[in-house]
Amino acid sequence: MAFTLPNLPFAPDALAPHLSAETFEYHHGKHHNAYVTKANELTSNEFTNDDLEKLILETEPGPLFNQLAQHWNHSFYWQCMKPNGGGEPTGELADAINSAFGSFADFKEQLKQEGATHFASGWAWLVHDGSGLKVTSTHDADLPMKHGQKALLTIDVWEHAYYIDYRNARPDYLTAFIDNLINWDFVAENLRNV
Ligand code: MN3
Prior knowledge:
minor pseudopilin epsh fold; mainly alpha; 11% strand; binds manganese (III) ion; 2 domains; 8 helices; Helix Hairpins; three-stranded antiparallel sheet
């Protein structure tokens, strides 16, 4: 038994030009894979992906927590994007976004600002906090489930997520991700499971 690296839910070159095959070669094949390998080393291959959420909730911040949480964050992040993504959500999700942020345009602006102004490494999120939707961000490996929130959508804002394709231009990566890559079906499914 051991944690395993999930396959990407799309071909590595399917999101170009917004994110290149080279980005996935490094981000999925090397960075995410390293978190999986280190999590297995620190737990003596004792656990599987099915144990991940329970273990994250039980583990105090520290080296093991960082590897576990980064494995969860990246597994979630790959599902947040798809070829020909973006556009606008519909139905219950669209209603929840309008109710929380006023309009879809205001939501997009808030998400982009959150990601662009987050200092150093971390993650920008759309979460459900028990009463409604909220845009937030976390540092390093930290994630919403540690704060009693349900993750609906994330954007990785560690430099390794965008540096190959965008160099230091994090706002351009965020714009491309939000406008062209978000898998709104996955986000809507997450909201239904809140
Ligand atoms: Mn990453």
